[in-house]
Amino acid sequence: MNEKAPKKVRKSKATKPKPEAKASKTKTSESKIPGKKKVLVLGGGFGGVYAAKELERLGRGKLDVELVNANNYFVFQPLLPEVAAASIHSADAVVPLRQLLRRVQVRQAEIMGIDFDEKKVIVVQGTRRIPVDLYYDELVIVLGTSVDLKRFPGLSEHALTMKDLADAHRLRTHVIGCLETADVTDDPEVKRQLLTFVVVGAGFSGVETVAEMRELVRRALKYYPNIKPEDVSVYLIEYANRILPTFPADLAAYATKRLTIHGIEVLTGVGTKSATGTAVELTDGRVIPTSTIVATIGNGPHRLVETLDLDMHWARIKTDRYMRVPGRDHVWALGDAALIPLVDDPKEDPADYATQTAQFAVREGWQLAANIVAKLNGQELKPFAYKSKGSLASLGMSKAVADVYGFKLSGTLAWLLWRGFYLSFLPGFAAKLRVGVTWLLNSVMPPNIVQVQAPPPATRYIHYRKGDKVFEPGMLIDGFYTVIRGAFRLTIDNPETGEHFEKVFGPGEHFGERVLVRSALRTGLVVALEDGLLLFIAQKDFTRFARAFPFLDNYFKDYIERTFGGLDKSFAPGSTNAKTELETLP
Ligand SMILES: Cc1cc2nc3c(=O)[nH]c(=O)nc-3n(C[C@H](O)[C@H](O)[C@H](O)COP(=O)(O)OP(=O)(O)OC[C@H]3O[C@@H](n4cnc5c(N)ncnc54)[C@H](O)[C@@H]3O)c2cc1C
């Protein structure tokens, strides 16, 4: 790819706003400030923040810079594994965008579409979610990437990810939840599953996540008297033949050794095939029973970017060396979302392009800002050029590896360098101070094992492997299940009357609807007869929904009578013991 636009430039067909977006009433002119050009920056991550800051500095008086981001804060992603491990507080890994960008207009909104012909971006903001059009003179797309686990059945539904603050928080809560249950369960199989932690992908975010998670578990164990250190298993799974591909081989070997000493089983040359809520299956046929799968793989195209009809390669927007998007006037792209060549005639070699790291995104932001200002001043643009200064990865237990300016370091010194570097890189004095103090306190204080629970989504897909139990007699009822794929067998045995009931459910059929009439314990056993997928709706939500639509309520009542009407009525789920309240209409 060279500076010129590629021959095959797609016709300027804008992403059509969705019908509701067309109904937009608010029209914001290019710039509200007369004589100023409007630059819209889409995305408030590393690339967006540093580009917007520099645009404001270089274009002061001439540019009206606005940054749009889904959250009102900037996430310092390299510290997310520390948040997940409770080494720092969630709030310490984020900085309010308005504090970072004092002179830039910040808009918290979700970007829904871009109309390149009209030079406008459609966003929704606020609780009323009314679409608003934002017009631009120059547009900067820096929306990062999305996690795409579609290639691995079950991973999207059952793996935790490590991309934003909510992910880190969820992982920490989940790990502590596993320890809480493992400490009290009597079932050895369940205990083993709860105490097995699997991280998939051994790039630096996977390595740091597995190391920090191991550290959290190790430090927390003294508060869980029924869990012995040998009950815990931690795996790091990597498809390539070694971990940390961006590091020199000897540092990667050191890292593998340290992780192994730390009690982490590092499996290389093997990938994940599929996952369920109770296990992960590897490409070599091994099945690891686990309740915790963290996927740091699957960097896919950003969902909105994918719909923009732009030239994409390797799931990134192709740009020229100046970060302009070929075929789209006034549109620029950078950061993880963009494929920026580092040489004039790039080949199919990742080394010919900017890498997807914060280090690059920051430099791209600076250069892009200079190029936009140069363009508006009629000056020459400069191609983006940058050589990585190196990489650092923390390995837990106060150890790290560093490859900086060609110098290779490992162990405690590298770890101190890692901490010092990220502290200096963290934007804002207050954030630096908070993280520094927390790190100091954490070295002498016990880990924080408070579990602030976030309920799982009320509606979700659940994968099952052949033989898995969906529920069994005596379990508190949880919700309603619809079969999407596979076959599931329900058996109900009444020990008092000797009654036996059996039914197999296939795609489109459902079970668990008796939550509508009874709320207590299950009397039946449901087992997957083959690998399958269920849609689960939590009891409260299902009941509300069915009650709100009389035809649904009537359908289920009729279905229950037709299907289970012959069963002994006294064999009610938990009619004599645990009962939970059925919700009444407000
Ligand atoms: C766990 C982890 C550890 C890492 N560690 C390192 C490290 O040690 N060193 C390093 O150099 N790099 C590291 N990286 C990579 C680095 O964080 C990324 O390369 C960098 O964040 C890319 O910046 P970006 O601005 O392109 O995208 P992002 O930082 O992802 O920012 C994109 C922004 O766009 C916003 N957005 C997306 N869609 C919408 C929408 N529809 N509407 C509104 N806003 C939207 C998002 O909220 C986000 O704020 C790490 C990444 C992770 C996940």
Overview of the structural elements:
By secondary structure, this protein is of the alpha/beta class. The protein has a five-stranded parallel sheet with strand order 6-3-2-10-23, with helices on one face. It folds into three domains: 19-70 and 109-145 and 301-376, FAD/NAD(P)-binding domain (3-Layer(bba) Sandwich); 155-297 and 390-442, FAD/NAD(P)-binding domain (3-Layer(bba) Sandwich), CATH 3.50.50.100; 459-564, Jelly Rolls. The longest helix has 20 residues, at 165-184. Helix 2 (46-58) packs parallel to helix 11 and helix 6 (165-184) runs antiparallel to helix 7. The protein is built from 15 helices and 35 strands. Residues 43-48, 68-71, 77-78, 80-81, 110-111, 142-144, 162-163, 204-205, 304, 335-337, 356-359, 361 line the site of flavin-adenine dinucleotide (FAD).
